[in-house]
Amino acid sequence: MFPHLCEAWQPQDSVPQETLSQRDEFLIEIYANFVYVRMGSDDPDSSSNPHISPTTYKPFRHSRDHLIRDATSWSTISSMLSQVNVPYHVQPLMIRKIHEAARSIANASVNKDLRTLPMVVSIRVVQEVPGETLPVPEVQAELMSVHASGSGAASWSSIQALEKVKVGGGSEEKCVICLDRIMVGSEAVRMPCLHNYHEECIVNWLQRSNLCPLCRFPMPM
């Protein structure tokens, strides 16, 4: 089975054509490939002859702060990945890699005079498909439909109604959005699915996606 891959870097000798941006931003170019391998096949060579979809390309422009700040980077990057149909369950590692690359590029001394920072992201997503029952193109279309659904913002009233709790117990929790600790004794926001997050993190997230980052529980839209 091929592994999922995500690489992010600043292209060499590449300066964005639009250099008169009024804000510090990233120009992110995402290239995504989807590899489909038949599941349950007795053929030992089945994984060596996968179906590879045409490359999906999509450019994005985002404020530099949105990709660098811990509270907003997760939701911003997840939104981009969802728009190129990357499944939620494989996004966390990719989000961390893209976030780390963005910070490195933004902090590089050679980029100090650039308003627009270019970044290329190359992604490979591997999916097992029931090749005996569905032709691969149908499976690909179905997966794209599923991945694209449920990615709208949660309603503001549902966000405001979220429960605020004081974190107790003998161990600290981790907010999976910013990857920082939720300190014992501090206040957190609890989703209806009982997952806890920093308030700023989950509010930013739900303004882009109505799904819980951990279990995909859907909030009202």
TrEMBL record:
Top-level taxon of origin: Eukaryota
Pfam families xrefs: zf-RING_2 (PF13639)
EC number(s) reported in the record: 2.3.2.27
Keyword Zinc-finger in record: yes
GO molecular function: ubiquitin protein ligase activity; zinc ion binding
PANTHER family from the UniProt entry: E3 UBIQUITIN-PROTEIN LIGASE PRAJA, RING-H2 FINGER PROTEIN ATL21B
Protein name: RING-type E3 ubiquitin transferase
